[in-house]
Protein 1
Amino acid sequence: MDMYLVEAIVNGVLLGGVLALLALGLNLIFGVIDVVWIAYADIVMCGMYLVYWLYVGLGWPLPLACVCAIVGLAAFGMLVHLFIIEPILGSAPINQLLATGGLLFFLQSFATLLFGTDFRNIGVRLPVIELGDIYISYARLLAFAMALIGAVALYFFLKRTFIGTAIRAIAQDRDIIGLMGADQRRIYLITSMIGGALAGLAACLLALQYDVHPFIGNTFGPLIFMICVLGGLGDMIGGFIAAFVIAQIISIGGYYANTELSYVLAFTFFIVLMFVRPRGILSR
Amino acid sequence: MTARQALLAGGLGIVMVLTFFAPPYFMHLVIQILLWGFVYTAWSMMGRFGFVSLGHGAFMGVGAYVPALLWNYYGLTPWLGIPLGVALAVLLAVVIGYPCFRLKVIGHYFALVTLALSQVVLLSITAARDITGGSLGLTPKAAGFSWYALQFPDKRYFYVIALMLWLGGLAIWRSIDRGIGRQVLDAISEDEEAAAAVGIDVMREKLRVTVISAALTALGGAIFGQYLMYLNPETVSGIAVSLQIVFAAIVGGMYAMLGPTVGALLTISLNESLRIAFGTNFIGAANTIYGILLILCIIFMPRGIVGVLERIGVRRVRSEAVAAE
């Protein structure tokens, strides 16, 4: 079998891990609050700049910078919910999507104001693992592992804790939850906080393998929305599978044609599947 | 009320005639405002009924690229190329719209499907870089002053074209408003099931307004390409353009006929004045302000600037009526 094809498939799996991790937080917010944070990838971008600034600019140790980015974005997630989503929670969902679109403009241009349009790199080069003739990026492997750990942790949090159960309940029926003795407002805030923290985690891992620039969100943003919708609203397992399917299309498509065409293929696949299975790939 | 409208129309007419003799830079701004105003108006024809499309960048890109490519490679006049581009955009709108409306893909799902469409067109143009020049952009072959090539070095020609296009867009908006279509579409945007129950062909009505909107957007893109004589996938297609269209229309007010134009006026003059004030030192300044404005707008005045003005106008008329009694 063609060695390059194998490498493409392996890299596809690893890219799937990165995408799954990125989609995790968005999917949670999407599923629970029924809001699309269209600026989600740009919030991740902010996290990457935070890591860059703390590590390169202030010379903090990398793990500390990462922890700060996660905590910082968790707080930011709460602020987004408090100031942007909550005031218009009652209006049509599309308005909330558009309001976070304003946030997207703001974050991208604010990052441009602060850092300029240069590509920044934190300068940490993790080794590349050689397996026979296949090269695997260690940073991607790390992201893949973290995505798995993150997903499992989130799964147990949602299944085993009271607040997790409340979050799942609210996703099923948002009108009745008040009668069950759970505070809807608090649950939304916590969900947004977790979503922000997951964006922070993704930012740390992306900062290890990509250069930061103000428009990096445009690269991942559209992909992770597709993944969330493909997986089915708030369906974590479906989202995981969708991430790997999309990543394989991009990776193998890139091997046979070129990168742009593989993305075209991925988006077309999304549009077609939306019509075949509007409720997600795992729906019956 | 009619006297006031006549006064407004008369004032606007005088401004338009005066612009004809304005310096080129000023005229360039006015042409941009009119063309973008036209595209924003086209988007709002769907948007105001709750069909929020993030795919209009795709229609604009197709409309701009098809005539330019046909001209460059086959020497086909834009007089034929533009209708072909518009037809292709309409086909795209039907291919996406039909299954979406059939399967009741609405709200933010519709937004995300059309968003994917924007990306498909953007990336296809970029991928076909041997033909389209990719992200380096495409320049239609210059023909000097030519009616055949629809190229006029003199901005005044494009001013008149843009003005006519814009007025045409408003006329179409008016005709949708006047006909029974308006009530039908309002009913659909309130409740699709109920609209279908009273005998409205929901599919056909939604598709009709989508096709009109896509065709006008493609036309706007085509004229934009002819005017600027330079196309870049990032500036005429893709998510960035789609979002730009949506947001300017919302800020201006997508429910009123002149709202989208006010949006174009506001965003373009904001951009220009910030560019003049700060130069290129603060590249992001305009969009930073714009982003905040947008969030505030959606939260506090979802009907946009014109919507707020209209409400104030209505209140004043009412208080005048009370005073008269």
Protein 2
Amino acid sequence: MFMTPLLIAQLGLTLFVFIMLLNSAAVMVYVERKVAALLQQRMGPYLVGPKGLLQPIADVVKLMFKEELRPAAADRLLFALAPIISATAAIAAFAVVPFGAETTFFGLLDEPLRLQVADVNVAILVLFAIASMSVYGVVLAGWSSNSKYSLLGGLRSSAQMISYELSYGLALAGVLLLANSLSLSDVVDRQAGAWFHVIPRWHVFLQPIGFVVFMIAGIAETNRAPFDFPEAEQELVAGYHTEYSSMSFAMFFLAEYINMVTVSAVATDLFLGGWHGPFLPESMGWIWFLVKVGAILFFYVWMRWTLPRFRYDQLMAFGWKILLPIAVLNLIVTAAGVLYFGL
Amino acid sequence: MTIDVIPFYLFGAIAVGASLLVIAQRSPIYSVLLLIASFGALSGLYVLLDAPFVAVIQIIVYAGAIMVLFLFVVMLLNAPHEEIEEDLAREAGPHRSASTGLKVFGVVLAVLFVVELVWALTRRGGESGAFGGASVTSVGAIGRSLFTDYAFAFEVTSVLILVAMVGAVVLAHREPVGGKAPWGEGAPRSGPPE
């Protein structure tokens, strides 16, 4: 009796998001390699399937059949736990991200359902909380492997994530002040429509500095180049996951790509108007959402293959002495703007 | 007994059990992780109390930011696993000696803590119901009462955190680089006494 259509739809949506997140990691692996090849004038994967499209599947099969290795001196429990923490945090973070307007699925449901797994009223903070939990996966992997490379990778990563989380949070706070709400769907709804019928009312136009800070801190949070210190190949072999193989290695990989997708989706919701866009009706808004997320993801990959890695002290100096002051200034100016002009 | 009680006892049991295990652990890394579990359970209790904002802040500030720093420091101080065992064995041995500086510091901290605890319990004991229902969920209400009614407690807590920070600096400089510690006679030593 308690299986109402709405509940079934909600459960279906949750399962759909879960599967799509796993798929997005596979797609991102392919896109990453293809874009890298494009930028470096190579072919990229092209043997498995048409245009190499089945390459991710081949990769997954290969990883599944590899032997699971564990260093003799590793801490057994934590060594097994670390990839699970990473992957769980990555998948859980997407739960509060809305990706489409309310819909009744062509009249199948009595009341509209929002395309979001959980509409929490403190969604942005939940996101932040889960992001701060995902650090543990990396740190514990580095420590429990009992290998110098892993440990250095883990230590660097914790220092980096702590440093950039501050700027990340402050960039978010600017948008929160404008939207006067902690709910992501409220933030998106506020960005509907356009100024003078031309410029969309996206927060990126009100918060250009906040957007840039958010993107930079987001790249650092997801450990992507040019901030990929935890896994700097030339110095640390593979950083915190040096000792991992087979599926536990795959879980770290999965987590990295899902985190990228989540940060892109959050940037879209906060700054780029979410599913709002011209030409398409509200119910088809998820297409706009996908387009925007795809654009940011492409930018991510583009950055990785364009910019060289920072030096470690440069990374820390940049985070604390440049990015953080800019983020604080941005927050103060925004607060003043909201207070005096009621933006 | 209603069904709401079950999650309360569940979270309560996890919080208490994990906290007890924190001090029963030999490995500092496991202590840190158990403390995180305890904070997570506390956060669950806040959700049951209809205070999602406090619950999430609990995770962000304690389980997220502060415990990452703890973990960082624990990893930095005695990184390889074997050394932890050695350290513990050495400290438990007959040559164990905490220097006077450390002892005084510990006593000062303990006294401060007890004073704060007594003060907090006597002063705010009767007003636990001051926060009425819906206002707990509002970020604005929490901020306002934090900076008006509870401003003094807020500032006192920040001083306490400063004290802890100074303590951390003192502890972290356990092995002076140039032989003699920069802060004089009370300098703690890492090796056994001569």
